[in-house]
């Protein structure tokens, strides 16, 4: 397997877990910078050279089942087991900060990790908030920071603008004039920046982000592999999205290219999920010998048990024979009425039945003794006699009449068995004659014999395909075949009913006079072809077995089972199959030997470009919104420049920067330069920009103190170039 085209999914999600060791707490009070993202929670001291500490922004609180002790987990540890995953919560629901218990757990983790062991957090706090964040979420966050942690001052900033600040090299202004495209977890924002200020009043938001992209990729994989043996999670899809998806410069042209099976195979990428290979250990000769000896010993025990059971049955039959012979002797010791009563008490209706039972037991005992002695030749059976059938009924009493009726039934059954035996013998001779002619024809003219069988095989295959096509057409309510069937049913139902009394000269129903009349029932009955299909499949199986045995040019790939499951080249390239059809005696069924490693693979081809294309064509995912190209076209007049800055984790998708340039280029004058700039590190530059800004004196003008919070409330913030404008002063 080509490792460059394959992504291996680890059996354990997330990095290896390690205990958190608090940092040493110094005497200085640098600001604490927190990037409160919907996916990752990043924190650290301002001006730190090591970068932020990054954790999954998820917490889980539950009770351990064995000890009943409360457990609180944060970060990747929430994915350890099913219980922690089920109880996990994130601070954000979409773009809204709603779960403040989860936010408090995240802040506790951050402050403990940073080594803060005092009663209050005596550090200024610089935290991100969502663009146009609702005042309710801001008020509760400020209340948490000021009231619960006792922070001296707090500032809020926008992650996209702080990423632009970190990547701006202009000394005269904090932000370079550009169009900022910020890819977030649940949305994508486009912010125009002009004159060093963000024009938040003209900002646009698209309701499609990294979370929706991962979910769309998951749904596409579930549709493509409905019976995939492993569970695919959104976290795994996020990894696949970042490693394998691309943005096409021209999506429609890319789709036209992928209609070529070769191009589809070249574009194919494999995601290999973990699997457990079957344990197939080769046995040594000693183990094989012991296993064979065990089988032989088991066979000997079964033979001994069969012999013992046969001897027991023989002894029981001999005992029954002696009892019946003793019963027969009572015929000469008592009256006939008493003797017949004795027979009925033993379950025998007549003396004739007694004689037949004795004769049958005697024959069975003789056969069993001869079989034990090795002589298995069967004696010719005597033809049964029915003496009472030739006697008139007037000469018989009541018991003899009953016996005569019984003999008549026995004779009818005997004659039916003779007839069936003769027909079976005739069919056997006919089959032997047919096999002899087939062998003679195959010996004299093997090419012609194979050609004839191939023609018969082709006719049967066409017949079965036509029947399958008719079934599929009848399943469609609006198909022509189904409409014709309903028309025939309506015509039969609308025929004039026959009158109860036939009148002279009246109309007579001639239906059935021709054999073709009955074909109408075959047309309207859907299940009538089942018996014919079974016969055709049996005949096809016989032909295929002969061709596979005697015609080297006829392979299992030519069988009906293989032809039935054969895919087109494009479909095979779209979803390669790891199931190999095996020869089955019944062509109507197919046995399959599955490749376990292949069964745990997901092949991505069209999906690699389809998922990122939603940012530019949201309608392809059912989102009623404008794409990035249309949004940027409406905002470019406000920036008066051709510079586009992209940030956020999805900005790392291959081809994203080139596609942004291709969208902007037709919107500007030919002589105006176009440049799409990607952040140095789209995931961490927002925190680095916050850390850099928090180390400057200007940061002190952007914070609100605890006294201002107590005077104006938690909804008010100070207005500055990197924060929100709503309810700012």
Automatic annotation (TrEMBL):
InterPro entries: Actin (IPR004000), ATPase_NBD (IPR043129). Keywords: Coiled coil. SMART domains: ACTIN (SM00268). The keyword Transcription does not apply. It comes from the Eukaryota. Residues 370-392, 420-444 are annotated as: Disordered. Residues 281-327 form a coiled coil. Belongs to the actin family. This is Uncharacterized protein. It comes from Rhizoctonia solani.
């Amino acid at each position: 397997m080509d490792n460059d085209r394959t992504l291996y999914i680890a059996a354990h999600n997330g990095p290896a877990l390690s205990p958190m060791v608090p940092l040493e707490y110094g005497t200085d009070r640098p600001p604490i910078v927190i990037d409160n993202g919907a996916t990752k929670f990043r924190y650290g001291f301002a001006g730190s050279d090591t970068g932020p500490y990054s954790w999954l922004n998820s917490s889980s609180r539950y009770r351990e089942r064995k000890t009943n002790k409360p457990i609180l987990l944060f970060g990747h540890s929430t994915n350890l087991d099913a219980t922690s995953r089920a109880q996990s919560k994130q601070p954000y629901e979409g773009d809204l900060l709603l779960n403040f218990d989860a936010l408090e757990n995240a802040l506790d983790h951050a402050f403990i990790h940073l080594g803060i062991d005092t009663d209050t957090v005596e550090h200024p706090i610089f935290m991100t908030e969502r663009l146009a964040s609702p005042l309710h979420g801001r008020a509760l966050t400020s209340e948490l920071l000021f009231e619960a942690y006792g922070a001296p001052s707090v500032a809020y900033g926008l992650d996209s603008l702080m990423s632009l600040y970190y990547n701006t090299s202009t000394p005269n202004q904090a932000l370079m004039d550009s169009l900022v495209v910020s890819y977030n977890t649940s949305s994508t924002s486009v912010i125009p920046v002009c004159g060093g200020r963000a024009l938040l009043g003209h900002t646009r938001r698209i309701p499609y982000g990294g979370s929706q992209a991962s979910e769309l990729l998951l749904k596409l994989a579930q549709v493509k592999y409905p019976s995939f043996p492993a569970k695919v999670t959104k976290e795994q899809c996020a990894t696949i999205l970042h490693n394998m998806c691309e943005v096409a410069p021209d999506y429609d042209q890319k789709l036209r290219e992928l209609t070529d099976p070769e191009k589809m195979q070249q574009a194919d990428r494999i995601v290999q999920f973990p699997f457990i290979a079957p344990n197939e250990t080769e046995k040594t000769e000693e183990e094989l010998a012991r296993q064979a000896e065990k089988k032989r010993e088991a066979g000997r025990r079964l033979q001994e048990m069969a012999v013992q059971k046969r001897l027991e049955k023989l002894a029981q039959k001999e005992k029954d024979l002696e009892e019946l012979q003793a019963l027969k002797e009572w015929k000469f010791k008592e009256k006939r009425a008493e003797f017949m009563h004795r027979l009925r008490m033993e379950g025998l209706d007549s003396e004739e039945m007694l004689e037949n039972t004795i004769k049958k037991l005697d024959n069975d005992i003789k056969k069993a003794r001869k079989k034990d002695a090795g002589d298995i030749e069967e004696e010719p059976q005597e033809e049964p006699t029915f003496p009472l059938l030739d006697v008139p009924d007037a000469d018989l009493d009541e018991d003899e009449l009953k016996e005569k009726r019984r003999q008549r039934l026995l004779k009818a059954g005997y004659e039916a068995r003779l007839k069936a035996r003769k027909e079976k013998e005739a069919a056997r001779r006919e089959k032997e004659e047919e096999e002899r002619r087939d062998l003679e024809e195959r010996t004299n003219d093997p090419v012609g014999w194979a050609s004839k069988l191939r023609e018969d095989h082709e006719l049967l295959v066409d017949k079965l395909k036509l029947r399958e096509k008719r079934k599929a057409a009848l399943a469609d309510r609006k198909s022509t075949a189904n409409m014709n069937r309903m028309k025939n049913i309506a015509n039969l139902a609308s025929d004039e009913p026959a009158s109860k009394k036939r009148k002279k000269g009246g109309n007579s129903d001639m239906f059935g006079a021709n054999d073709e009349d009955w074909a109408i029932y075959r047309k309207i009955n859907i299940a009538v072809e089942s018996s014919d299909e079974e016969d055709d499949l049996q005949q096809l199986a016989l032909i295929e077995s002969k061709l596979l045995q005697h015609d080297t040019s006829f392979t299992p790939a030519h069988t009906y089972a293989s032809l039935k499951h054969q895919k087109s080249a494009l479909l095979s390239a779209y979803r390669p199959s790891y199931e190999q059809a095996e020869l089955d005696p019944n062509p109507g069924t197919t046995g399959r030997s599955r490749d376990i490693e292949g069964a745990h693979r997901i092949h991505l081809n069209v999906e690699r470009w389809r998922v990122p294309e939603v940012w530019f064509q949201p309608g392809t995912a059912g989102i009623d919104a404008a794409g990035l190209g249309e949004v940027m076209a409406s905002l470019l007049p406000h920036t008066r420049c051709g510079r586009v800055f992209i940030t956020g984790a999805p900005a790392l998708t291959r081809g994203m920067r080139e596609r942004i340039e291709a969208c902007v280029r037709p919107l500007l004058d030919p002589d105006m330069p176009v440049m799409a700039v990607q952040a140095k590190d789209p995931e961490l530059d927002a925190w680095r920009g916050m850390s850099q800004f928090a180390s400057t004196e200007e940061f002190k003008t952007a914070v609100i103190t605890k006294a201002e919070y107590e005077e104006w409330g938690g909804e008010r913030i100070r207005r500055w170039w990197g924060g929100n404008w709503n309810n700012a002063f």
